[in-house]
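User: Earlier you gave me the apo prediction for this protein. Now I'd like the version with NAP bound, so I can compare the two side by side. Same sequence as before, with the ligand SMILES added.
Assistant: Got it. Here's the input I'm using:
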Amino acid sequence: MADNEMKAKLKDFICSTLGVEADVLEYDTELFGDSSIGLDSVDSLEIISYVDGEFGVDMTGVDKENFLSIDTIAAYITANK
Amino acid sequence: MKVALITGASRGIGRACAVRLAKDGFTVVINYSRSEEEANKVLEQIRSDGGDGMIYKADVSDPAQVKQMVRDVDKKYGQIDVLVNNAGIVRDSYLLMMNNDDLDKCFDLNVKGYFYCAQQVGLKMFRRKQGVIINMSSVSGELALAGQSVYSAAKGAVNSLTRVLAKELGAKGIRVNAVAPGFIETEMINALSDEKKEEYLKEIPLGRFGKAEEVAAVVSMLTKDELSYITGQVITMDGGISL
Ligand SMILES: NC(=O)c1ccc[n+]([C@@H]2O[C@H](COP(=O)([O-])OP(=O)(O)OC[C@H]3O[C@@H](n4cnc5c(N)ncnc54)[C@H](OP(=O)(O)O)[C@@H]3O)[C@@H](O)[C@H]2O)c1
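And here is the structure of the complex with NAP:
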């Protein structure tokens, strides 16, 4: 799967399931903590579950820095596919 | 179709749970680590009762094997509805006689193994926002028996794990409970000396050891929609020994 297609899917998921507005979410926007998006650790569980189901990549127990942005999640998926 | 994965299902309580859940209509995954012949016999019995399932060899104290097992089962059946974390060992000794290898083995299987399976199966259940996890604990998780510090500590950990996971996963439609049996007639109990058995029997108000099928009946109950308001509980079934 092309990198951009993967990122588009991740963005769609984050917007539709986690209630983030599409126009404020770029691929390098910080997702968690004090960022404008402000996802929390429960949201990261949803992302882990989605990535497992959609891309077959297990992100349980991986370091937080992999969840920084759509870019870093996509990079992890590509590296571990 | 509903799918139940039962760890340590080649013998004893796990075996009884596999047979029972198959009768309840589940497709059953019989996990084992060494006893392949026994695991096959369990599957044969399930098939002769009109059910179905598969056997799967994996040492559940090894996270890589757990990951592979859960992946393979999910691929084959597309879902896991029930996990029974059951595989467990007893390593009894008085504190001053305890060896580190026994301590490690007991925690690796009875505690860490439960975490590994709950994490991997939980990941699959999370996607579908439904599922039931049942942890096989023991009355020893609460009751203090001299010589059982390692096993008791492990089962105490299982009880705590059960409560916390119930809280974490409840909002995602996943229920987590534990069953805490007293003395159940399995190889674990058969290995005791007659004197020890007599000693324990005197302490049990119902005057007998329990049967693996009776534990399986409680497990079956906890999978049912009718009882779906129960989560985070440790259900004791021990003939009254803990009273
Ligand atoms: N019996 C009792 O009185 C009693 C009371 C309270 C609680 N419990 C709990 O009930 C559970 C089952 O006990 P049981 O009496 O039925 O024991 P059991 O008869 O000794 O059977 C243990 C089962 O676990 C499997 N197993 C062992 N190590 C494993 C591993 N590393 N990976 C995967 N499977 C493994 C065995 O399969 P293999 O032979 O293939 O390895 C076997 O199927 C345990 O958690 C125990 O603590 C038992």
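For your comparison, keep in mind: The radius of gyration of chain B is 17 Å.
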